[in-house]
């Protein structure tokens, strides 16, 4: 299949829809859990790991399952068609469940929503290397991350206006947009011909049985590659991914709470008012500054990775984001916003810092997946994509309860130093990575370092 950038942009709508959902979920669910159901920060952190638990348990299986799937549509689209509509319905029901004040109903809704999101997320991610040659993957990953950033930007900025009116409205709008975005992927992004088998019916039972035997065996084999190989690049890049996602997820999960409870001093469980809704939506809006700069920097970050090398680009990004988050910490400890208005000088300073942080995050995030998938063969792309997400989601499984425990024991002032420490550790471990990068060979040809 001929490579086309226009096709990658269309595929990016899958990431666009997914990012809208996760941006709103991470910004507001911790507030709901603490205010409506009285959970402390540690328990809130554990609840916020449900999506990551599903990811750790299911993504390796689903990556391998979609690798083996052959249908008239291809090997990735059946999972999108099943997962996206179901996840959209569950997401739209979250504010309905909250309004009933029933914890069991609320938890059931978010558990099913997380399950259905896990069902199609890995196949969507693996779709990119399916239709992209190795030498174009950093650029392609930049494009789809641009689309993901655009989705998060819409969630934070557009969601603020809707949330200020009614906290349920952003959830309804995001569910509809995510459904339409993934429909565009299914309709307009063809899968490679070899994965489409016209006229041949798939045996679901046989496929599931074979995948059950192979998927976690493949994960075990891939993990053995990680820990047993004499060449430690794969191990160190995955450890780095784990560390920087611990840092980022802790911020993503608790910054809105930090903004409300620490900077404004609103007591947990205080009655909902127009003022408190504006504080919550403004905290989420500040995270939108990260998404804005991430979106703008995503494509240049992919080309920068191709130009100076992925490892160097990732390291520079980690250093930048560490410095910025440290700056956010000192600003928060020395200055408090007087109102949740975007015209408040302190709020504007937070926004400027987060904008710079998004540039660093783009440099890191855009170039990491291509490093991992370029350490394997075409036949194992889905499995290594699952391995990448195993480590990133394992980090997200650890981050919320660990950060929440620090917040319960010491207070919200530990949130930003906690993140900085893990970003710095990630920058250190990245220095031991020797593979998965781009080297310039003779005749200006680009060769990618592969497996041993």
TrEMBL record:
Protein's organism: Thermococcus waiotapuensis
Keywords: Membrane, Transmembrane, Transmembrane helix
Pfam families noted in UniProt: MFS_1
MF GO annotations: transmembrane transporter activity
Gene3D superfamilies xrefs: MFS general substrate transporter like domains
Residue intervals passing through the bilayer: 7-25, 45-66, 78-97, 103-120, 140-159, 171-190, 233-251, 284-306, 313-332, 352-373, 385-403, 415-433
The UniProt record lists the keyword Transmembrane helix: yes
Chain ranges of the Major facilitator superfamily (MFS) profile domain: 7-437
Cited CDD domains: MFS_SLC45_SUC (cd17313)
Name of the protein in its database record: SLC45 family MFS transporter
């Amino acid at each position: 299949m001929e490579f086309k950038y226009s096709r990658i942009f269309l595929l990016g709508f899958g990431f666009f829809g997914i990012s809208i959902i996760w941006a709103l979920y991470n910004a507001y669910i911790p507030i709901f859990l603490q205010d409506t159901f009285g959970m402390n920060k540690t328990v809130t952190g554990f609840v916020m790991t449900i999506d990551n638990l599903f990811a750790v348990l299911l993504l390796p299986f689903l990556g391998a399952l979609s690798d083996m799937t052959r249908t008239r549509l291809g090997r990735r689209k059946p999972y999108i068609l099943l997962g996206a509509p179901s996840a959209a319905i569950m997401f739209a029901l979250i504010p309905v469940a909250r309004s009933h004040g029933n914890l069991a109903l609320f938890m059931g809704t978010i558990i099913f929503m997380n399950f259905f999101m896990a069902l199609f997320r890995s196949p969507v991610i693996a779709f990119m290397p399916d239709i992209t040659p190795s030498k174009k993957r950093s650029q392609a990953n930049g494009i789809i991350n641009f689309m993901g950033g655009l989705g998060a930007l819409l969630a934070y900025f557009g969601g603020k206006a809707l949330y200020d009116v009614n906290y349920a409205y952003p959830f309804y709008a995001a569910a509809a947009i995510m459904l339409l975005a993934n429909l565009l992927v299914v309709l307009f992004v063809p899968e490679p011909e070899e994965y489409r088998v016209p006229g041949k019916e798939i045996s679901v039972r046989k496929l599931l049985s074979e995948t059950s035997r192979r998927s976690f065996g493949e994960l075990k084999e891939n993990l053995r590659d990680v820990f047993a190989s004499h060449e430690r690049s794969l191990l160190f890049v995955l450890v780095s991914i784990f560390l920087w996602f611990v840092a980022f997820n802790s911020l993503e999960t608790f910054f809105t709470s930090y903004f409300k409870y620490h900077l404004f001093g609103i007591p947990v469980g205080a009655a909902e008012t127009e003022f408190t809704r504006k504080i919550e939506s403004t905290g989420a809006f500040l995270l939108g500054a990260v998404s804005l700069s991430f979106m703008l920097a995503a494509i240049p970050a992919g080309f920068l990775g191709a130009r100076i090398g992925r490892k160097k680009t990732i390291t520079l990004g980690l250093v930048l984001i560490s410095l910025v988050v440290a700056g956010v910490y000192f600003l928060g400890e020395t200055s408090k916003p007087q109102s949740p208005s975007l015209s408040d000088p302190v709020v504007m300073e937070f926004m400027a810092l987060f904008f710079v942080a998004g540039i660093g995050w783009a440099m890191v995030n855009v170039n990491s997946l291509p490093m991992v998938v370029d350490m394997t063969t075409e036949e194992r792309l889905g499995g290594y994509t699952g391995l990448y997400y195993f480590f990133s989601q394992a980090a997200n499984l650890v981050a919320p309860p660990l950060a929440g425990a620090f917040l319960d024991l010491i207070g919200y002032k530990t949130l930003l130093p906690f993140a900085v420490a893990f970003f710095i550790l990630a920058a250190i471990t990245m220095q031991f990575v020797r593979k998965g990068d781009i080297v310039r060979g003779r005749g200006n040809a680009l060769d990618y370092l592969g497996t041993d």
